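Predict the holo structure. Ligand: adenosine-5'-diphosphate.
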Amino acid sequence: MDYELIVGLEVHAQVLTETKLFCDCPTYFNSGDNENTCPVCTGMPGALPVLNKKVVDYAILTGLALNCEIREHNVFARKNYFYPDLPKGYQISQFDDPICVKGKLTFLLDGVENTIGITRIHMEEDAGKSTHHGDFSLINLNRSSVPLLEIVSEPDFRSAKQAAEYMRYLRQTLLYLGVCDGNMDEGSLRCDANVSVRKKGETKFGTRVEIKNINSFRFVEKAIEYEMGRQIDLIEQGEKIVQETRLYDPDKNRTMSMRSKEEAHDYRYFPDPDLLPVSVSADW
Ligand code: ADP
Ligand code: MG
Ligand code: ZN
């Protein structure tokens, strides 16, 4: 039986601003641990966020380059979850009212034009970083509230190579615009790959698995290929694909289960009452 691969990518790009998304702390994190922090990005009670307008400029620029519709009505929403490196207990993101929708990116692969739909682009803040040392862990909040653009594609990819090539073109576009430094080793550009398979001729999509935080073009390709094989094997053995989040291990070239997949409603999204809606005029 022949199978078809279906992939959608969620790309996170760190925006090249000097200061964070909602405070004036610097965005470089190679300085001393927790040096670039303040009451806002460490989630102190009573501290209030103020939007960095430059991030909106860069989001618009990116949206125009990716042939998106730029939406006038923008709302920041709280995505609620607990994690030690998320001091507020929520991440400020966009949900129902993102800045850009309905775009596309066209690129050449082996001389053939490929077009991938862009579902949406939204602005959000990064979390801090935990490092684990035997029986204790350390938290560095320099990265907390650094601005990101999340660029979500339609499930339009039909091969792993196509996904890797899209990442290369997207990186080049962001570099050209000056929106992101594209440094994948430092995590400035990373992606989550949503992967499913279906039997050829089938019209419904299969259950998807999300592979988190892939940080190289080669790994995007290898992780998708491995995951495709794993899912086909399971189906051939008469088993069901579980919707879950997995991690790719480049040393072993395989993916491992991390947690069962959360749904949007698990996050209890709601508009952030500390931030006003942002109106993006046609002139802007
Ligand atoms: P979440 O935030 O829960 O990951 P999204 O609605 O933002 O959910 O979708 C994430 C990505 O999953 C998108 O890039 C989309 O194209 C892709 N996707 C959705 N369904 C499938 C599927 N059945 N197979 C592969 N990719 C999919
Ligand atoms: Mg996702
Ligand atoms: Zn700060």
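The helical segments are 53-65, 160-177, 217-236. The two ends are 53 Å apart (CA to CA).
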